[in-house]
Structure formats: C-alpha cells, structure tokens
Amino acid sequence: MIPLYTAEMAKKIDKTLMEDFSLPGTVLMENAGRSVASHVSELMKDKNGKVLICAGPGNNGGDGFVAGRHLLNYGYEVKLITSLPMFELYKGDALINANAFIKVGGNICFSNELSDLKLEKMIKDADLCIDALLGVGFKGAPQGEIARLIEAINKAALVVSIDVPSGVDSSSGRVPGVAVKADVTVTMHLHKIGLYVAPGCTYAGKVLLADIGVPPMLGALTYNTNCFLWNEESSIDALPNRPLDIHKGNRGSVAILGGSDLYRGAPLLASMGALRAGAGIVYMILPEKVYEQTGQFLPEAIGVPVRSDEYFLTTKALDAVSAIEDRIDVLIVGPGMGRREETVDLVVKLWQEYPKNMIYDADGLYALSLNSAALDRRDNVILTPHEGEAGRLLDCCASRVHENRLEATERLSLKYGPVVLKGFHSIIGDGLRYLVCNAGSPALSVPGSGDVLSGVIGALYVSGLDPVDSAGLAVWLHAKAGENLSCLEGVDGSLAREIADQVRFVMGDIRYAKEKNRLGRRVGKDGKDTPAWF
C-alpha cells in the first residue's frame, strides 16, 4: 500500500529534509521544477513546443519558474503569467528563481494587465499549460486573479499541475470553489490524500511522483500516516491462498438476508458476487413468496425460505437465521429487503443481538439510520453506504458527504464500525486505518452493482482477512471489474451480473501474478500468457 499524506505532514517532511538532511529550499525547488520540466518534455514530444506557465505567489509559483527555465533550455517557447500585480512581491526561493527565469530569456506577463480576450488567446496558442498557482498548503476557494487564471487554464488543450491542482484541498480532496482540471499532476516526493480522494481525484488526472533528490520514503519515516492507497500490489498481497486440497467448506459460507416484492433480484446478485469471489457455500434467506419466484435462478446458492404469507421479511426470519447460524460465517443484511416497519425491526434486532460477522447494505442501512441513537458500535460489522445512505446515517445531506468523503468515512467508522463509503475511489476505514481504492469506472453505476459488491466483500471476509483488508480487496476487485467492462464493452449498458463475472477474471489475473511474481498477466485459454486488462 502507498502511504498518503496531508499538507501538514508534507510540510513537516519538507522541513525535516531541509534541517536533518541539509537540503536547502532552493535545492528542493530546483529539483522539483526540473522534474516537472522533464515530465512536460515527455508529454510534448509530438507538440510544436509552446508552453504557458501560470504562476502563483508562493513556492508553487517558484517551482513554475524553475520548470520554465529548464524548458527554455530544452528549446521550448515558454511564456509565463503571474497572478501577482508586480514582480517585486515574490520572496525567498521563489524570487531567486523568478530572477533566474528572466535572466535566461524568460517572458513574464501580469494577469491583471491582460484582457480576457488576450488571456484566452494565450491559453489557446499554447500546446501545454502548467498550473503553478497554488500549492499543497492552500485551503478555501480561490479568489481574484487566481480564480480567473484557473478558469482560463481549464480551456487549455493539455494541463499539467504542479504538486496539486490549484483549488483542490490536498489534505482532504475537497473542492470548495473553482479548481484546475489537470490531465497530469506532478506531485513532489509524497502522495497527497487530496489527489486520490473524490472529488479531488477527478481533477488530478494521472498522478506522477516527482524525484526531488531523495528517496520518497526518506523524510516520511518520522511521520506516520493512517491513510493508504489500495492498488494492484495491495490486492496481490492480500489475496487469500487456495491450497490444492481446498474444499468448499474451507472457503467459508456467506448468507444473504434480503428480498421483497419490489426487489427480488438483489439477493441473487449478492449471491453471484459471493460465489464469483470464491465463497464456498452461499445461503439466500428470502421471504417464501420471493423464494418461490426467484430461488431457481441461481442453483449454486442454497435457498432458505422464511415461512410467511408476506413478500417481505419480518422478525420471523430470526428463526431461519438461528437454524443455520452455526453454518454461517458472514451474514449480509439488506439487499432488496425493503423498508417496511416489520423489516426495520428485524434489522435492528440483528444488530443488537446477532453476535457473528455481518455486512449491512442497502435497506439494512436505512433501518440503522432510523435507530442510530440506540445502536452500539460494532467492530465485526461492515457498513457499505453510498453517499446518500451515508448522509442518512450521519444526519446530513448527501452533498456534504460528497464534499467531505474522508471526514464522512471517519465519522461513520467511529460511530458504527468498519465502513465502505462507495463511489469513485471508494474509501474504507475502521477509525484507525483508512484505505482509498485506486480504481473505478462509470460502468459500475448500474442497478445491482452494490449488491454484487456486498457479496464480494462477504466472500473475502470469510477467508480470514480483517474487515478493512477484506473490504479493501473486495472494493478494488469490484472496481477493476468495472474498468474491464469499460474496456471491453464501453461504459454504458453493463449488467450487474457481468460485474460479478468480471470479478472472477480479475482475481485470476492477480492470482497468477501472485504465484508467478508477474503483475498484470494471466494464462489465456490457449495456455499461453496473455496481458491482463490492467
């Protein structure tokens, strides 16, 4: 896993590098700007060579001056616009490098002297625009000339941001005002949280880690973080072993409690997710009427009908759960169960009295939100809300959750227990450790996708992983399955059952990588190695 850092941590680490490793700020700025120039030159191989740099008032602007100087040396045509009204307002290392940029022939314009038409023309004429306006320490909404420059940059053909897209909070991913939409972000020395947590990650584009002259972990050893990026390597490390003599009983059993007259398919999709992710035995505990209509569609799952004349679950289901409790390793509560009062009573009673591992999804979360004051936190129950469900659980609106996803995950995990906050770059946390999934696709935004995910989490939870790692692996597999579907079929028209099918293939790819130490390859139908989709 890749550690992610806040702005405050990054500043402390920079201070450590300067004081303990005898690297002055001018050296760090020189290395940062040179690295940006190197990455830009790679992007400009097929371009005419016109670069426009928009520089802000601080060290981020200083990095832009250094990058501009090196790009001039590479032979590119470089223009620079500063947000400051006069050159003399630059200070320290930024002023040193601003002077150096001018002395090698750099051209500086002041944004307040440029009309909107002139600014737009300069942006349009450039092959690439470098955003060097605001650094990792900035918080709040950009104002004045900086906001104006951000809006202009967003009309550029290709945008590279230095350290963090201007307007994105590097510690949280919040975007309180206008922000640069970068194609590439070259970040310095350490990965920042805001580049990977939504909505910030949607502004960062491809993130590249800049070499500033020291190993990336050198300054970080003194400062611990509790937030990590979950990626392919994390998934390979966490993937459960499958010995040659394994049988279905060793794979663990998952039970899905759900279904109603309106949502007959949700438990089936959760069951498909669990089976495709490797669960050994899957039970579907359904209202009898629903079981009669749908139970035969997935013969690999064991149907457990709850005797009733109703199409929904009530506390009568407790007897069905108790009858097979010793055979259940994880109980998934919620897929398609509806929101009737009797069903809510069942969900709350399970939270309060059922001692074994559980996953709460969909309408199970709705029931919790109605009774949150009466619930104690549980370490062995994983919640899987989307932003709307998270808002109900936290008694706030979904938009507030969207704007503060990491904070919302922390609040949920401290109040209820381990949680998966679903969405692009889903976040997993338990109050002590937080994981950000480095994958996702619009292909996942289809009915039943969340039901499949709950089943995948269940299958990995029964494999012996702790709640956070099981959810982290499951979320990544589910996200990569969506990416695979996007590559194969496009982002529209995917079916949830197809996501479940792709989970199996993604697991096969990373299992091959785990066994052969070759990431991203698997054995094709012809018996030969074939590249995987990621």
From TrEMBL:
Keyword Iron (UniProt): no
GO MF annotation terms: ADP-dependent NAD(P)H-hydrate dehydratase activity; ATP binding; metal ion binding; NAD(P)HX epimerase activity
SUPFAM superfamilies per record: Ribokinase-like, YjeF N-terminal domain-like
Needed co-factor(s): Mg(2+); K(+)
PROSITE patterns noted in UniProt: YJEF_C_3 (PS51383), YJEF_N (PS51385)
InterPro entries the record matches: CARKD (IPR000631), Nnr (IPR030677), Ribokinase-like (IPR029056), YjeF_N_dom (IPR004443), YjeF_N_dom_sf (IPR036652)
Gene3D superfamilies (alphabetical): 3.40.1190.20, YjeF N-terminal domain (3.40.50.10260)
GO biological process: metabolite repair; nicotinamide nucleotide metabolic process
Manner of cofactor binding, per the entry note: Binds 1 potassium ion per subunit.
Binding sites annotated in the UniProt record for (6S)-NADPHX: 59-63, 135-141, 163, 266, 336, 386, 451
Subunit structure: Homotetramer.
Family listed: In the C-terminal section; belongs to the NnrD/CARKD family.
PANTHER family cross-referenced by the UniProt entry: ATP-DEPENDENT (S)-NAD(P)H-HYDRATE DEHYDRATASE, ATP-DEPENDENT (S)-NAD(P)H-HYDRATE DEHYDRATASE FAMILY MEMBER
This protein's name: Bifunctional NAD(P)H-hydrate repair enzyme
Organism: Acetomicrobium thermoterrenum DSM 13490
Gene that this sequence comes from: nnrE
